[in-house]
Amino acid sequence: MVDLHLHLDGSLNPGNMSHMAQMSGISLPTTDEKEIKKLLMVEPDCTNLSEYLEKFELPLRVLQTEACLRYAVYELLRDLHDEGLCYAEIRFAPQLHTARGMSQESAVREAIDGLRCGIEDFGVRAQLILCCMRGDKNHSDNLETIRVAERFLGQGVCAVDLAGNEAAYPTESFADIFDEARKRRIPVIIHAGEAAGPDSIRKALELGAVRIGHGIHAIEDEQLMHILRERNIFLEMCYSSNLQTRTVDKAEDYPIRQFIQEGIKVTVNTDNVTVSNTTLRREYHLLQKQFDMTEEALKQIALNGVDATFLPEEDKAVLRERINKEFASWIK
Fold it and tell me: Which residue(s) pair with 236 in the sheet?
C-alpha cells in the first residue's frame, strides 16, 4: 500500500499514451492500446539492465511538454488510487524532459502541480524524488537537479536519487554531486547493488544515501549487511524488475527472505508499473507465492515502507493505522 520506488516514465498508462502524444505533438508507431502496451513493456528475453532501460525511449519522447508532464503525474495518482495505495514517492529525472526547451525547474513545477491536483482529487498522498542521471556528459545537468530539488524541497519534492546504467557509470563518479546534496540538506537515495556489486552500495552509503534502490548484491558481503542493519538503511526491493534485469538468475535466488532474517529493513515496490507489467498488489502476491510468506510478514514489509517515507512522524502514524486496518482486505 506504499510504493517508494516508482518511476514516472516507466509507469505511464498505455491507455493515455495516444492522448499524451497529441498533447506533445508527436506521432506514435501505433494507436492500438494493446500494441502500445507491447512497445512499453520489457520483453521476456531481456538479459540485462541496459536492455530494460531501452523501454524508456518512447515515454520520454512524449513527456517533453509542461502540460503532458503535469497530466502524467495526475493520471498516475489516479491509477495508484484505483490500485488501493495510500502513499507513493514518484521519481523522475527533470533533465530528461528538456529536449524541447522546458527547463528543469519548469518540469518540476508542472509535476508538482499534477501531484497536488491528484492528491486533492484522489486522496492518495504522494511526493516527488528528483533523479540525477548516470552519464559522463551531464555534470552541469545533475548539479542543476540538486539546485532545483533544494528550491522545491518540502513543497512536493522530498529527496534526490541517482539512476541510470549502474554498470557503465560507477557511483563514485558522482561524489561531488551528492556532496552538494548533503550541503543543502537534501535527503539522498541511490540506485546501487543492482547491475553492480556490493562495493556500489558501500559507495552509495559514503555519499549519504539513507535508502538504497534495489541493493540486491548486498547479500554477497556479510560486513555490508551488518552496516545496513546497524544504520537502519532501507532497501527498496523491486522483485519483478530485478528478475527482468537479471539481477538474480532465478526467482528462488532472490534474497528477500535472507535480508529479513538478517534484520535488514526491506520494502516492496514496483519500480516501473508499465515496463515491468506489474502492480504493487501483484508484487506482494508473487512474493507470497514464491517464498511462502505469511500475511503478517507481508504487512510488516508494508509497515517498513511507512517507516522509510520522507514524512513527519504524525503522518506516518496515519499511514500505519490505515495499513493495520486495511492490509488484510487489500492483499486478497
Answer: 213, 267
Q: Which residues are CB-contacts of 98 (< 8 A; sequence separation ≥ 6)?
A: 104, 107
Spatial contact of 80 and 38, defined as CB atoms under 8 Å apart: no
Q: How far apart are the first and last CA of the chain?
A: 13
Place of cell 530494460: 52
195-227 pLDDT, tens digit per residue, is 889 999 999 999 999 999 999 999 999 999 999
So which residues are the catalytic ones?
194
Residues linked to residue 88 through DSSP beta bridges, in sequence order: 3, 126
Q: Please tell me what DSSP assigns to residue 126.
A: E
Beta strands in the chain (DSSP E): 2-7, 87-92, 125-133, 157-163, 188-192, 209-214, 234-237, 265-268
User: What pLDDT, on the 0 to 100 scale, is given for residue 31?
Assistant: 87
Element (DSSP H or E) covering residue 46: none
Per the model's pLDDT, the better-predicted residue between 150 and 50 turns out to be: 150
pLDDT digits (tens, 9 = 90+) for 267-303: 999 999 999 999 999 999 999 999 999 999 999 999 9
CATH superfamily for 2-317 is: Metal-dependent hydrolases (3.20.20.140)
Amino acid identity for residue 242 in this structure: N
Q: CA 311: distance to chain centroid?
A: 17
Contacts of 137 (CB under 8 A, 6+ apart): none
Instruction: Record the pTM.
Output: 0.96
pLDDT tens digits for 3-43?
Answer: 999 999 999 999 999 999 998 889 888 888 899 999 899 98
Q: Where are the domains of the chain?
A: 2-317
Name which of 2, 77, 7, 76 is nearest 308 in CA terms: 2
